[in-house]
Structures are given as structure tokens and as C-alpha cells.
Amino acid sequence: MKKLFNTKLWWLFLLIILLAITYIASAVHYRLDLTKEKRFTISQPTKKLIYGLEDKVSINVFLSGELPAGFKKLANSTKDLLQEFKEVSKRNIQYSFTKPGEGLGDSAQAQFQDSLRRLGLNPMNIHAQVKEGEGQEQRLVYPGALITYRGRAIAIDLLQGQSAVDGINSLNNAEALLEYKFARAIQKITQDSVPVVGYLSGNGEPLSYNVYGFIENTLKHDYVTRIFPIDSFPEIPSVFSALVIVKPTVPFTDVQKVKLDQYVMHGGKIMWLVDELYAEMDSLQRAQNDFIAFDRNLNIEDLLFKYGVRINPDLLQDLNADKIPSVVGSMGGKPQMELLPWPYFPLLTNYSNHPIAKNLDYVVSQFPNSIDTVKADGIKKTILLASSSNSRVLSTPAKVSFQSIQNEDDLKTFNKANVPVAVLLEGKFQSLFANRLTQPQKDAFAGPGAFANSSPDNKMIVIADGDIALNAVTQKEGPLPLGMNMFTQYQYANKDFLSNCLEYLTDNSGILEARSKDYTLRLLDKKKIESEKSKWQIINIVLPLLLVFIFGILYQYIRKRKYRTAE
Fold this sequence. Notes:
- This protein is of the alpha+beta class.
- It has three domains: about 140 residues, Glutaredoxin (3-Layer(aba) Sandwich); about 300 residues, 3-Layer(aba) Sandwich (Rossmann fold), CATH 3.40.50; about 35 residues.
- Strand 24 and strand 25 form a beta hairpin.
- It is globular.
């Protein structure tokens, strides 16, 4: 090596070595994830998905140009993630960052932006820096990406399901969900077949514009969806990966219950959205003042009890609630209206950190009931949605009134916390009819195979509010998006929650695990900053100067001593 560098062309060998190191560094990328929550580690299901890609997937992210700090951070995190994807996928993932419609004419740009809206990617109006020292301008930002694969296209909104008023926390949650959203979109665009989901009918389940957002924009968006009239078939076909039962109003017969029970016993998944009591806004508006909510007597209490839950015949109220127009006074003989929280419309959230509901905005409900979990051997119960720490339960007969809170003493009764409304059940379910049918009756059951007394490992979700899956309808706009308040135009996370529920029931790939990531915000303590500001300013300004001064004195002392000794 020494002889090599003594030659005239030593610089050429050094250049070759540097180029080789640069090439290896660009080809081989590795990093250690030292974060406590492992935020930079891709989950195994995601790695398996992108490693198995058979063709190129192109991702165009619309986070480019001058952006506020929060969006720049989101863009940088997206770039880091996609670079990891690219390397794991054997270069089958290609990505770029652009402005929507950049380089297009006005008409072409308008068409492009319209196509993004049709794909579900809506813009945000934000203030962005034009140039340093030149102030700010308003501009439309599309916080999302367009993914294409073999002529197919899908758009993802990186802020979908996040609170629009939660600022930095919403952007932080969006960062935590980046892996899941991109992996889920890649999975959907590359799969050649999708699960079949049945929407049960025959017991008064709605089929009007009130379920347009759920059926058309949620179920049909991700699944092959079929309306299934339960009385028209001798059994529920096993072709259905899952069955959805939304707000039944007519009691179930024993024959129908046997069909549902045996569907579960043979591995079928069910998502129940049930209102135990009759309580509707239409009834309150007709009554002008108040009415009594009454039991629907749906005749499924014993079935759900056997599986591990009981929907109580009560109404849940919460001080953390959605807003409706309320009369606050009168002027000139005309009532004065104001949007106020109404406790019958609780805003539900997740406290279990389960990936179905983690990092989601509130889910709005209307007249929900409470749920109790009961003993069922071999069944694991997980609370997916619950009320806040300021809630109460009105037992039957439950009175519904516009003025349900009269004074401060009424506020003191809101002393219950985290009342369950949605529960996930997992395990081996036992049939309600195992010991209730004779052998000839069991033999006559025309189900998928023989009558089963228990199920394989299975799962179902029970939600004590059918209105979670219903959207508002206005004369001017028709069906509104699922979870949108028609008065405030604020959209809650109902659609995302229901989509996640169905994905958990029907998908065995484990992609949903990526939703369980945490991005902890380690913010500075503002009070401590204010109280210790001077101390840290002195440390950061004076201490470096003091160290330089001490080093200079020591250096001069050592130098003088050295040369004095030499003399």
C-alpha cells in the first residue's frame, strides 16, 4: 500500500477507492432504529407485501414546494419511508414529489385536480411562504399521493381520519399512519381479487340514501358487495367473507338466528351495528319537546350474550358531544339559534390502542347504548370505542329531550368514564343452539357442512349504535359524506373506523398492524422554558467562551513551561 501511494498515479487509485465507497454506500442502505417506539422500522407484513411485488408501482406525492413546517416534516417522513419501500421492493417502487398539475395549462390542471377529487383526494387551503422576506400566500395543498400500477390508479389522503382542529398532533398521527396507508393502498391496487361482503336485509335494515356513504363509498370502494336477504336462502353462503348488520328494526326469528349462528360457527365474520332502543331525531322533532325511547325487542340478546356481550336498553350521554342547532333565547318574537353540543350525540374514541381505532379522530354517534362484556369461555374482548370521562347512562324508560341538562346539578351526574360502545370479540365461539335443537333438527339444517357446536378461531365486532354507519341527507346536497355534521360541515372518522373494522375481519395479511405505531411528540415544557430561560442562555453563550478562555490559558501555560525547560 505504501509503494502504491509513492507512485505518480497515487491520486488515481485514491479516486477509484472513493468512487467505489460512494457506489457501495448508494447501493447498500442500512440504518439503525434507536427510537423507543421503533418509528423507522417497517413491519414484517409490509415487508412481505412490497418484497413480493411483480411489477413497478409508481407513487407521486403532492407535497412539494414551499410548505409550512408541519407539512415539510410530513413530506420528509414520507420520503424516508418510500426510500425504505424502494429498497425492500427490489426497486419495484418508484416515487417522486411534485405539485398537483405542475407544468400543465389552466384547463389541463383543472381537469387533473378534478380527477384527484373524484379519487377522494381533496385540497387544503393553507398559508405558505412565497420567498424569504416576501410574506405569505394562500395556496391549495393536496396532502396525499397518487399510486399507479398496471394501468390502475388509487389516491390516498394522508390526513384522512385526522382532526382538522388538532394541529401538530394530527400531523404527528398522520406520520404514524404513513406506513399503513401506503401499504394498504399498494395492497388494494395490486390484488387481483377482493373479499365479498354481504349487507343483510330482511329485518328493517335501511336501504335508503342514509346508507349511501356506507354502501357506495365504503363497502363497494373496497369489497365486492351484495345485498343479502336472509329469508331468501336456506343458509348464509360461505362465499361471504363478512356480513354487516346495520340498525335492524324488526325482531329476528329463531330460524334467522340459527342461520347467523351457524354462519359464525363455520368461520363467518359479522359486524353488528345495533340500536337496542328506538330513539330518532324525527320523533323528537315531531314531539316538539321530548319523548320516551322504547325497546325494539330485536330478539338477539341471547345470541350476543352467548358470544360475550350484552347491549343494554339504555341511552348514553356525554358532555363531549357533536353540535346541533339549539334555541338559546328569542329576539323580536323569533327564536335565537346557536350550535351547541348535544349529549345524546357522543363523540367516541379509542382507549385500548387497538389498531382498528388508534390514531383516529372522534367517531360521532347518535343515541348509542352502552355495552357490557359477559363471561364467554375462550373469548377475548377488546373495547374499540368508548365515551369520555364525563358521561352518564339513562336507564329505561329513557327520556329524550332537547333540554336534557337543566342546571349545574345535572352536570354533576355526568360522572361515568369510558363507557364501552363498540367491542371486538375474538376466539372460539360456542353455538347458542348446541343444546337447544334436536338431532333431527340439526340434521335438517342445510348449512355449509354439518351443524357445528363451536367455531374455529373467529372474530366479530359489536357496535351499540346503528347510526354510526348512517349519513345525513339534505335537499340541496343529497347524501353527505359518512360522519359529516350537516350544520358544521365537520367530518368525523366514522368511515375510517368502519373500514378498519371490516379490514380487520376480512384481511389476514396483518397490514393493519402498521396502524399500531406510535410517534411520540417529545415537546419542550413551556413553563420550564420560561422559568429557566436566563440560565440556559448563560450556559449556551458564556460557557463556550469560558471554555475557550480556559483552553487558551492552559495552552499558553504548557507552551511557556515547555520552552522554558528546553532553555
